[in-house]
Amino acid sequence: MKQVAWDSVGLNFWKLGRDTAKPSSDTLDWYTENVTETNSVLIIGGTTVDLINAMEVVGAKVSVVDFSSRICNELRDYVSAQTKIINQDVVNDFKNWGETYDLICSDTLINRFDQDEANRFQENLYNILKDNGKMKSTVKIGMYPMDHELIQFAKNNEISIDFWDEDSNTMDYSKAKPILENALIPHGNINKEDLIAWYGNRCKEKRFYENDLRLLFNSWSSVSIIRDYNDRVKVEVQK
Ligand SMILES: C[S@@+](CC[C@H](N)C(=O)[O-])C[C@H]1O[C@@H](n2cnc3c(N)ncnc32)[C@H](O)[C@@H]1O
Q1: InterPro entries given for it (predicted)?
Q2: 11 in ligand 1 pocket by Cβ < 6 Å?
Q3: Are residues 72 and 178 in the same domain?
């Protein structure tokens, strides 16, 4: 279901979207640190083109997995012919495609999941990592400006705030469909129609804090969490 959201923006997310939605050059250095030509690296998310290209430059064996067929198709023009593109969901209906990796990277992805999806993501990744393999991911901490806008708009207009669950810190944009247009914040130059389709199909997303991430990966052998930009963290965990 969530892939419908990403099919509606495709690689325009990378071409026209906000720069802050992409990894900075410092963050790219962190992802590629200590990666060598002998390493197999999986990148989750075809919109993270700069990271895919940075791993290609290092010479690693690169695979990309994405549940959006549009993104998989569009990506072919921007990556090396040696880079493998896999069209698959890493959370739901997950089927191991028979490869294991030294490193799995994803950029601001975990904050697109609700708690159940984050749990499945963590388990699935564990199964496709080699022994001592690592997972690196940046995670946006806390609520998005759009969340605040929607809540404020609903309050000002006496609309029920059924799209935000305070107990689980979970947002459901699909429930806010009727008011999305009124609280829409620009995302670079992505057009309004595509943005509304993107938000309206993103469904449930938990807003994570550092403790949620420590709990999520508490069965892994090591967990390191450090700040990235001013609104996210770099999470590095080892199997
Ligand atoms: C990595 S995230 C966030 C954007 C990122 N910060 C960037 O640099 O583009 C978005 C990407 O992950 C993909 N994606 C999201 N959930 C996924 C899932 N469950 N399985 C596979 N791909 C997924 C989306 O289709 C999209 O290409």
Answers
A1: SAM-dependent_MTases_sf (IPR029063)
A2: no
A3: no
